[in-house]
Amino acid sequence: MTHAPKTPAATFVDWFVSAEDGLRLHLRDYGSPLDPGLPVVCLPGLARNGADFAPLAEALAAGAAGRKRRVVALDYRGRGESDFDRDWRHYDLSVEAADILAQLAAVEIHAAIFVGTSRGGFHAMALAAARPALVRGAVLNDVGPVVELQGLTRIRQYLRHPAAPNSLPDAIDYVRKAMSAQFPALSDADFEFYARASFQKLDGTFGATFDPNLVKPLDKLRLDEPLPQSWDLFEALADVPLLVIRGSNSDVLSQETFVEMARRHRNCATHVVEGQGHPPLLADAATIARIAAFVAEADKG
After folding, report:
1. Whether pLDDT at 7 is above 60
2. What pLDDT sits at residue 11?
3. Phi-psi map region of 40: left, alpha, beta (phi>0 left; psi -120 to 50 alpha)
4. Is residue 52 part of a domain?
5. How far apart are CA 210 and CA 85, in angstroms?
6. Does the CA dihedral 158-198-43-114 come out positive or negative?
7. What sign for the dihedral angle of Cα 259, 264, 265, 266?
8. Residue 65 lies in a domain
9. Residue 57 has what pLDDT?
């Protein structure tokens, strides 16, 4: 395991660890292993990376949940600062699950509260099924056992035409045009944050931050018929505290599925982020406060 030097302004350390097949994987590590709070592990969406969680991670590490705690935000293979895989067939949930376990073992996290955005939520459910002692609580950000075809079709179309703006103004312009319809509540600062998270690299330059081959597994899916539902996998979270977050304009997590998740889980809290779509950024003060309150309660349990 290696790490990049921490700049004076940085609130995290960048770690690089090896996957089982030798691929280099990246994670951001906020706080300290000596902090008293239960760690939080942040798992991003399909083509996203750990930079998405910066505002939340900084707040939780600083003690927003009552105690300082370690927060790690992972990059899957082919995203962020992790290496791209020469074989696109490895962009698979099972391979990524093994990567996640390797990353957590490298930084010695054996139990944590998981925050999973979109694809990350499926990973959180799968980890709860495979390693129950690892998952002490879960936040599912705009994801559930039923994925709406409209949203998945939109995501696939986005991945078929990936952008690679090479400056901050171009990146802001791109995300503003792409997101404004579903995210009318975002401020200029929000768009800048998301532009940086989407396209800014570790060295400060801008460009593509995910492998275009990520679309190939989606191209194999038939999106003219409903996808299999994952209620059995959702049951893996039955014994841990759960917070489900939905963007009010989401086209991936329907209101019906959102309500049904809360009905089926005996310890499920919910939170709606108004004026945002799929997935909510988890960067506004109200949502960070809600997650922090949930983390504090889950930590007590």
Report:
1. no
2. 84
3. beta
4. yes
5. 11
6. negative
7. positive
8. yes
9. 98
Give me the mean pLDDT over the 85-90 stretch: 98
Is there a domain that residue 181 lies in? no
Tell me the backbone φ, ψ of residue 157, rounded to 5 degrees: -65, -40
CA distance 143 to 28: 23
Assessment of whether the complete model's pTM goes beyond 0.85: yes
CATH number, domain containing residue 57:
3.40.50.1820
Output the CA torsion sign for 114, 116, 119, 125.
positive
* CA proximity to 155, closest of 200, 197, 118: 118
- Please check whether residue 197 lies inside any domain of the structure: no
Domain coverage including residue 10: 2-149+228-300
DSSP string of the chain, one letter each residue: -EEEPPPTT-SEEEEEEE-TTS-EEEEEEES-TT-SEEEEEEE--TT--GGGGHHHHHHHHHTTTSS-EEEEEEE-TTBTTSPPPS-GGG-SHHHHHHHHHHHHHHTT--SEEEEEETHHHHHHHHHHHH-GGGEEEEEEES--SS--HHHHHHHHHHHHS-----SHHHHHHHHHHHHTTT-TT--HHHHHHHHHHHHB-TTS-BS--B-GGGHHHHHTS--SSPPPP-HHHHGGGTTS-EEEEEETT-SSS-HHHHHHHHHH-TTEEEEEETT--SSP-S-SHHHHHHHHHHHHHHHH-
Question: Which residues, including other chains, have CB under 8 Å from residue 259's CB and lie 6 or more apart?
Answer: none
**Burial class of residue 124, CB neighbours in 10 A (0-12, 13-18, 19+):** buried
95 contact partners, CB below 8 Å, separation of at least 6: 77
CA–CA separation, 248 vs 94, rounded Å? Answer: 30
Query: How are beta strands 112-117 and 69-75 bridged, if at all?
Result: unpaired
In total, how many domains does the chain have? 1
